Amino acid sequence: MDPSRDLDAVANLIETAFELKNDPEGMNVVHNMRQHARMLASADATFLDNLSVKASYSNGLVWEDQGQVVGNITLIPHTDGFRRVIMIANVSVQDDYRRKGIARELTIKALRHCRSLGVRGVFLQVRHNNQGAIQLYRDLGFHFLHSVSVWRLRPSPSGLDGLGKRGAELESGFSIRKRRPPDWDKQKEWLDALYPQKTRWYAGLVARHLSPLAWLNPFAWPQVSQTEHFALRYAKTLAGVLTFQRRSPQIDQAWLALPPGLDPKDENQRASMLLRHFVRERWNHGYLNMDFPLGHATQGIQEAGFTLAHDLDWMAIRL
Fold first, then answer.
1. How far is Cα 42 from Cα 33, in angstroms, rounded to an integer?
2. Which of the ends of the chain has fewer CB neighbours closer than 10 A, N or C?
3. What average pLDDT is seen over the chain?
């Protein structure tokens, strides 16, 4: 991948392959790529501009045919504690070139490159219903980790209208208040069960920043000051916690913590009450994402005006 030559073509390829026109987060990535491509092409681009853009986008491979970019794979470096890992993303092939083995060869070469760098942990996300891609990754040695639904709340009045007058109502016996410090132990236990540690480095869920003791760390103040917690109680018992994180200029994020093992009715009920309360009382009408395990609390999340963006499978390989 040579950003000065390939970046605009890769942006076009990704937009088409993943049908991003109705995906604000995806289109923001594509917009940034095109903006950086224009920066590289500008006569006013400085040496530092070129160095910065190339450092951001050089980790990847493209497949060319007669000078045209028809396939792409992006390698995103991350750290999991002190361990280096790679996230494979944007595996895309132009329509006319699909089913010719290009995605397979790109992935094989990407894994060889990761191994040459000394990286042993490689991860990816794949659409839950993309059985062809899932089988390809299995054939190459990837194993399934878990499935997640990506939910989005968009700045549209329709979401609020859908809640109607029941938007702020609670079922008998339930109440919602700000989280108390003693609630943290249960919230952390539930978050650990719902958001697996193996992929939390990518999700951006940093438990220590959600702790009531986070204020003691001055380095965490920027994150803590942009975070709110809402606790659902049944009588005196903690029944669920919703955490909201502002992430300007990125899309805001919500984390829903519910006790594991609830029956579907209770799970939907608790998710609905917490999320509807948040939307009515505290939502700033910006874009909001929330990940939650696939197949759980679907009805309750939809009742709060969220729409499903993707169902994704996490897969990984140890090199």
1. 14
2. C
3. 89
